[in-house]
Amino acid sequence: MDITLPKLAEGADSGTVVNIVVAEGDQVQLDQTLLELENEKAVASIPSTGTGKVARIHVEVGQVVSVGQVLVTIDEGQAVEPAAATPAVEPRSEAGVEAPPEAPAEAHVHASGSGAPPAASPTVRKVARELGIDLTRVKGSQRGGRIVMGDVRSYIQGLQQLALRPSAPAAKPAVDVFQTLDLGKWGPSTRERMSPLRRTIAQRMTESWTTIPHVTQFDDADITGLMELRKRYANAYEKSGARLTVTSFAIKAAVSALQKHPSFKTSIDYQALEIVTRDYVHIGVAVDTEAGLIAPVIRDVDEKNLLDLSRELDELAERTRQRKLSADEMQGATFTISNLGSIGGSYFTPIVNSPQVAVLGMGRGVHRPVVQDRKVVSRLVLPLALSYDHRVIDGADGARFLREIVRFLESYPEADIKWPVS
């Protein structure tokens, strides 16, 4: 009996073998774990679908396997028939090959003897301006060459097809990031294969940085009073099974800011030419693990009190470090918070995690001299950095959002801390 790779999750058609827990000749039982696969940033166990002896292991650690691929063969066992797997190869056309996408329309340039721009409604012009589209390149389908929304959509689809079409090799750049590095001639070096998690992080960060026009704004929050409140209630929270941390307070501050500034809960749907606003508030929290940075998601934070939020944050962070998260637990965030305060440092420029449009970075709080009532006093100041997608968020809105974060942290209501544990 062959054990094949089932579909791991929606949109997950492959994974990397990170651990094989059986050997050829071993007796295995129904539902016993055979190996572990990493997909995206989650690790999933692949169980046996029958009972018997392991006759052959067809994969090795580090190998990328696809849905339907044979992983292990079992002999002499009465196994449950495995569920039908999605074929590893998509169906072909009758000719035996997939038909190429329809080629985009020929390049169009608007020509006007008077220098007037192409005819289009104010709505079409506004959408084109927000998306950075030059309307002189869009061919209008209406009378007199007037451009309508469907023409803009067709133009974008044509650009997408053009981007995906194989092209002739371009001129060699000055620095080729895909070249094989030969650093040994300069001295000793060590090579280590990128882990699946590190490859995923690299891919996601490259996509976000190259497709999102980032703006980062900085500010400081005086958290002297907040830390006094934390000290006052920390023991009560610990007795209730939770740690009261700055991250917990920051999540609450983010909820307040997101509710007052809903543009930070949006995403761009380029296919539909729409800006989608979420009605929910799910917060991703970056967790430092030995394998790399992972951001699990706490859902519906706007419906949870500080005690429950702190408990869930602790539990989720621990499972993240143990790599026991499912793929769903790392998806669907509205907004992300990255707190480097426990490590040190002050300001940094976090990268937006697409399709989100903003991320909050927090440094380590430090005591600084501050002038209050014409007197210099020592206050605990928390450095903050807000990166956002400038396609949908203007600088003024970014400043207002960050000031709301600061205001909430500097005037945190004691009742919000007290009532769950009183």
Q: What does the overall shape look like?
A: globular
The succession of helices and strands, N to C, reads EEEEEEEEHHHEHHEEEEEEHEEEEHH
CATH classification class of the largest domain: Alpha Beta
Strand content: 15-25%
Give the tally of β-strands.
19
Catalogue the unreliable spans.
78-106
**Rg calc:** 27 Å
Going by CATH, what is the homologous superfamily of the largest domain? Chloramphenicol acetyltransferase-like domain
Helix content: 25-40%
Number of domains: 3
| Number of distinct helices | 8
- Structural class, from helix and strand content? alpha+beta
Q: Whole-Å distance between the termini?
A: 59 Å
> Largest sheet, described in full?
7 strands, mixed
Oligomeric description of these chains: single chain
Q: What is the architecture of the largest domain at the second tier of CATH?
A: 2-Layer Sandwich
Q: Could you report the average pLDDT, rounded to the nearest whole number?
A: 84
Explain briefly what this protein structure is.
This protein is of the alpha+beta class. The chain has helices spanning about 120-130, 150-165, 195-210, 225-240, 245-260, 305-320, 395-410, 415-420, and strands at about 1-5, 15-20, 25-30, 35-40, 40-45, 50-55, 65, 70-75, 215-220, 265-270, 275, 285, 285-290, 295, 295-300, 335-340, 360, 365-370, 375-390. The strands form 5 sheets. Strands 9, 12, 15, 16, 17, 18 and 19 form a 7-stranded mixed sheet that branches.
Describe this structure in words.
It is a single chain. With 422 residues, the chain is α+β, with helices and mostly antiparallel strands. It has three domains: 2-75, OB fold (Dihydrolipoamide Acetyltransferase, E2P), CATH 2.40.50.100; 106-157, E3-binding domain (Dihydrolipoamide Transferase, Irregular); 212-418, Chloramphenicol acetyltransferase-like domain (Chloramphenicol Acetyltransferase, 2-Layer Sandwich), CATH 3.30.559.10. The chain contains eight helices and 19 strands. The protein has helices at 122-131, 149-164, 196-211, 224-239, 246-260, 306-321, 395-410, 414-418; strands at residues 2-4, 14-20, 27-28, 33-39, 42-47, 52-57, 64-66, 70-75, 214-222, 266-269, 274-277, 283-285, 287-288, 293-294, 297-298, 335-339, 358-362, 366-372, 375-389. Helix 5 (246-260) crosses helix 7 (395-410).
